[in-house]
Amino acid sequence: MPEMVFEYILKKNNLNPAADLTIDQSIDFGSTAAAFSGGQGDFSVEFEPSATALEQEGAGYVVASLGVDSGYVPYTSFSAKASYIEKNPQLIQSFTNALQKGMDYVNSHEPSEIAKAIQPQFKETDLETITAIVTRYYEQDTWKTDLIFEQESFELLLDILQEAGELTQTPPYQDLVVTGFAEKAAK
Q1: What's the pTM?
Q2: How many other C-beta atoms can be found within 10 angstroms of the C-beta atom of residue 59?
């Protein structure tokens, strides 16, 4: 997905990924930061904490954000069969409410508070680095205020997948997306 989003952004900016640059797809995604800091390539697409680690090591700089340049791409979504949803609406609503509670927290607290709250989940990363990462996301307006999977984001995802050659047909939004649980959680 990161490469598909990257190529989509390149095309939006009149760059042809096949003709205007060389993308090395032979490197395992978890090893791209090490390859970059070792001298391979002029640019690298990184998730956190690798991007911040490259900056801290003096091995690179974050020059752009795929999330900012692409718009709200629904990187994380949850899927369930219609039959499961029908049989377990309270469970689905409780799960969605818990996720919304997390969204409410990140949208009502400062990056330093968020970093302290999530630090136990990232034992290998120090608090200063987590705070820098959260601050970057905060300043980029990375988090939505709710969990509603909007049609605009759905269509953006389909556009990205089509541009990458991964879709031959576009499924209708209303056939795949259920927003009622997220709408209720947002209230």
Answers
A1: 0.83
A2: 15
CA 85 – CA 63 distance, rounded (Å): 42
CA 137 centroid distance within chain: 10
3-state secondary structure at position 75: coil
Are 74 and 153 in contact by the 8 Å Cβ rule? The answer is yes
pLDDT digits (tens, 9 = 90+) for 39-60: 999 999 998 899 999 999 999 9
Contact 24, 11 (CB under 8 A): no
Structure-token pair, residue 96: 């969605």
> What is the distance between the alpha carbons of residues 83 and 150, in angstroms, rounded to a whole number?
23
Rg (CA), the chain: 19
Helix (H) and strand (E) counts for the chain? 11, 0
Q: Write the pLDDT tens digit of every residue in 135-178.
A: 999 999 888 999 999 999 999 999 999 999 999 899 999 999 99
Nearest alpha-carbon partner for 75 in 84, 66, 64: 66
- Distance between CA atoms of residues 13 and 127, nearest Å: 36
Residue 48 · residue 131 · CB < 8 Å: no
pLDDT at 2 over 90: no
